[in-house]
What does this fold into?
Amino acid sequence: MTYDDTGGGGQAVVLLHGFPFDRSMWRGQAEALGAEFRVVAPDLRGLGEATSDSVGVTIEAMADDVRALLDELGIGRAVIGGLSMGGYVAFEFFRQFPERVRALVLADTRPQADTEEGRRARAENAQRALKEGMAPIVDSMLPKLLSAETRERGGEVPGRVRAMMLGTRPEGAAAALRAMASRRDQTDLLSSIDVPTLIVVGSEDVITPPADAEAMRAKIESSRLVVVEGAGHLSNVEQAEQFNRALVEFLRGLSA
Ligand code: MLT
It folds into this structure.
């Protein structure tokens, strides 16, 4: 597994990226947390610089990869955070290894499995990525990923997100699409989550909208919800300051 392991010697925080991104999407968080916390950000199977082949990619396998990485790094319990697909992996990690979870951060994600229509679209996109490369996927996803405010503001964010998506290997993207399509429904897990949980969502997220986040908050007793104003689906990249403030406050609260 390729990963970044940065920051201080405090509580370890593992940050799991979304699709079709890589560990670099957490750069802003690694910088903001580094003085107080240890931040571990891996590339998930088949994505980023992960060189593992794209066979056997499932959300369960991704969760087990994270467990193996924690073992390798000598980290017993960590805060497990994930955005979107990373959140699917975080749910699965909690299901399989609850004793390794100090707290959860669920950003712009949802517990439900895909609908039949969603699965069909994933299969089509996987085929398309393999045949035509990432460009058509990027063109269709990008307008839905970022808020109008982020797109109008310009600056480095839209270009950075685009480059990250275009840098994804089509084989890895296709494998991740299939993994997401076959992921289990985690709705039944919510009421058993008994660790402190921070739920974060962009106010303009149209992929996993604030209503999904509110529904999770209602079912996870130990959770709190923060809405990141002006952000779409990539709340940590689009409004890093707001996201970091919420995250740092949450993490400090764990040791208070
Ligand atoms: C992501 O950001 O990881 C994806 O939008 C998740 C998904 O397609 O379900």
